[in-house]
Amino acid sequence: MTNKERxxxxxxxxxxxxxxxxxxxxxxxxxxxxxxxxxxxxEFVLKPKWADIGAVTKGGxxxxxxxxxxxTTGIPLFPAVDLAWGAGVAMYAPEAVTVDTKDTSSNPGEAxxxxxxxxxxxxxxxxxxxxxxxxxxxxxxxLGKTVDTSKGGGPHGHVGVNGEVFLGKGKxxxxxxxxxxxxxxxxxxxxxxxxxxx
Length: 198
Known about the structure:
22% of the residues lie in helices and 23% in strands. It has helices spanning 3-19, 28-44, 164-167, 191-196; strands at residues 70-72, 75-83, 90-92, 97-101, 110-116, 121-127, 136-137, 142-145, 157-162.
């Protein structure tokens, strides 16, 4: 039996219980049965592949809970958010990732194309190092530090997010006030809310 079939069976059992003669939802025994069924269902409900994507800065919010604000210049389908403000700010892998493309320099600094375990792709830019193709990082592993630059309002890290694996080929996350800009405006739903809406 698959997890999906187990969840369906638990839900059928709950419906039969609720349809039974004398069912009292607030009765002690019925409340206990509901707790057990709820716990079993939660155990078998599959989390989406993207559910464990985390923060890219120490103590920061998950990348899922950020609203993207602008395009990545010259790289289609990677709307982005700027964060890690200041020179020398450490940036970390939001999930287990692998360097998937070489020659990814940004101006200024270096950049990394990464593919996450979930299938999500990232473009980290304005950092102080590059890595060989195929280099793997665990979730939360150090990737690099932001470089000293005054471009774009001051030193910062740039994280472009490509969600084609979930959104469909050629589709991108909404960003900016209107969903497709203008650049450096707020108003788009968070990455999590966009994925939950699929």
